[in-house]
Amino acid sequence: MIVRRAGRLRASVRVPPDKSISHRALMLAALAEGDSHVENLLDSDDVRATAACMAALGVELEWPAGASAARIRGGGLHGLYESEAVLDCGNSGTTLRLLTGLLAAHPLFSVLSGDESLRRRPMGRVIEPLRRMGARIGARAGGTLAPVAINGGALRAIRYELPVASAQVKSALLLAGLSVEAPVRVIEPAPTRDHTEKLLAAMGAPVAREGRAIAVRRPGRLRPLHLRVPGDVSSAAPWLALAVCHPDAEIRLEGVGVNPTRTGLLDILGRMGADVELLEERESGGEPVADIVARSSSLRGVTVEGSDVPRAIDELPLVALLGCFAEGETVVREAAELRVKESDRVEASAAMLSALGADIETAPDGFVARGPRELHGARLDAAGDHRMGMLGAVAGALADGETHVERDAVSVSYPDFREALAAAAPGTARLA
Prior knowledge:
432 residues, UDP-n-acetylglucosamine1-carboxyvinyl-transferase, Chain, 28% strand, alpha/beta, 2 domains, globular
């Protein structure tokens, strides 16, 4: 992708469907009794990987190429079948981690793997509590890396306190808990995205929040899903950053999910003094939805830590970019989780922005960005990490000269991002 500074920005953008909800809807619909219909499903590499895995497990799933809606014929809580082949999760950490929990509860032998990047991502945090539940799981590097081999079967209840806030680990344990009569309780150090709990409740599962704990026990059955997936707030985030940092911009983002467990960036932008407004707030499938309008803003540096971090974990690289345009220091700490994403996003964000002329330094658990700074075009390598690809593109649209973003991988979560950017600001983005 080749990007130049965006001119005057006036755009209305419909962002892709929520990736987290899309993954979970496909998995849970497979366990329902009857046909589920999921509309506005994200057609991306990651979600297609989940769909392919479910099909390999015997799930009847109709989702034609290019379609935005899928029909999933659920076989009930025990309706999965053993796959003859390795389940390929591609580059999707959500697919790998949630399926590990789901399959640990089924009397099947399963092997899960993925691409080179996914095979480097830590799995011990999921495997260790599942083993405490009685799961028989093997993995590479002493049980910490994929491929993962699972001999599923009877599990027992657990009360598990997460050492690090993680929606994926929490969800894996809740999915495993669907096979256990006594409650499985997961205690969070800070709130994380709660899409799994919302979907389970909508399907009739006995799931409840008890303070910092989420508890689930085996349901008699799960009702089919009839759901329209809202727009992904993480895909809205690059547009928010572009609008508030640009000197002449107003961008409206339509139909975005604003679940409070996902809106950490909106809170951060509010503290930075950004002109961001939520309009036409409503609900879709149990999820709060709104249109978001973001305008050019004068920003001030802030500190991001504590409960902000899990609620904005995917957007924190963009906070580094915001810090380049804010007055003073923008500090992100307690975010060591960024180092074990598709790439080390602490180092990758700093390297990208430094190449563009930013004043940024890293710490073991985050970074410090100092602003305001004028950015200039550069050649950037996103190293196959979709979040880094979008960070580089937005930064390039705010920089003088021309920015080349190599290996951007944006199709993982936002298949038409390049086209949307070019349409919002003609002449800004093109393919090499």
